[in-house]
Amino acid sequence: MSKAKAAPEPVSDLKSHVGFWMRFVSNHVSQAFARKLVKSGVTVAEWVVLREMYGRQDVSPSKVADLTGMTRGAASKLIDRLVDKKLIHREECADDRRYQDIGLTASGVKLVPSLAALADRNDQELFNALTAAERQTLLAILKKLVQAHDLHKLPTQ
Fold first, then answer.
1. 98 vs 73, 74, 92, 94, 95, CA distance in Å?
2. What are the domain boundaries of the chain?
3. Cα 74 from chain centroid?
4. Dihedrals phi, psi of 12, to nearest 5 degrees
5. Number of neighbours of residue 102 by Cβ within 10 angstroms
6. Are 22 and 130 contacting, i.e. CB atoms less than 8 angstroms apart?
7. What gap in Å lies between CA 6 and CA 155, rounded to an integer?
8. Which run of H or of E encompasses 52?
9. What are phi and psi of 100, to 5 degrees?
10. For 30-148, which CATH class?
């Protein structure tokens, strides 16, 4: 004697979710940009740090963490990598070695505009199917969601 199996509870289709499509597009945009960055030797996360530091005077690592929405540990690791790549310089305070200021090196300052041009081209390539008005509408909607949910962490992956 076999028991009748209960019918599975109905669930929404994965592709009916706005979040699915946002992540789908976001992943493709990020992966395309990461491929464009390979020749520069910089990762997307490192690009975010470099771009946030561009045009700023020397700042503390904690300020970089605040600007990027990263944890201090994650920011510190990225800063270490960028120091090793000679794109960021680090200066410890003479009074207290726990405090330090970091800034872009001349190489870092020179690199950021070319990477920004790659980011611009990546956006153009992936969003060229939209009219200028559609792009502005999409940006406005995404910014509205960011504000409504008080989102701060910058995407680095």
1. 14, 17, 7, 10, 9
2. 30-148
3. 13
4. -70, 150
5. 21
6. no
7. 43
8. helix 44-53
9. -150, 155
10. mainly alpha
φ, ψ dihedrals at 59, nearest 5°: -130, 170
**Among 33, 119, 153, 43, which Cα is nearest to 87's?**
43
Residue in 104, 71, 73, 76 with CA at minimum distance from that of residue 88: 104
Report DSSP state, residue 29.
H
Q: Which two tokens stand for residue 81?
A: 């990598």
Residue-level pLDDT, tens digit, the chain, 157 residues: 567 788 889 899 999 999 999 999 999 999 999 999 999 999 999 999 999 999 998 899 999 999 988 889 999 999 999 999 999 999 876 666 667 899 999 999 999 999 999 999 999 999 999 999 999 999 999 999 999 998 877 666 5
Q: Helix 18-37 crosses helix 106-127 at what angle (to 10 degrees)?
A: 140
Backbone angles phi, psi at 119, to 5 degrees: -60, -40
Q: Are 69 and 152 in contact (CB under 8 A)?
A: yes
And the tokens for 68? Answer: 């990027």
Q: What is the DSSP string of 60-108?
A: -HHHHHHHHT--HHHHHHHHHHHHHTTSEEEEE-SS-TT-EEEEE-HHH
Tell me how many degrees the CA angle 47-49-144 measures, rounded to the nearest 5: 90
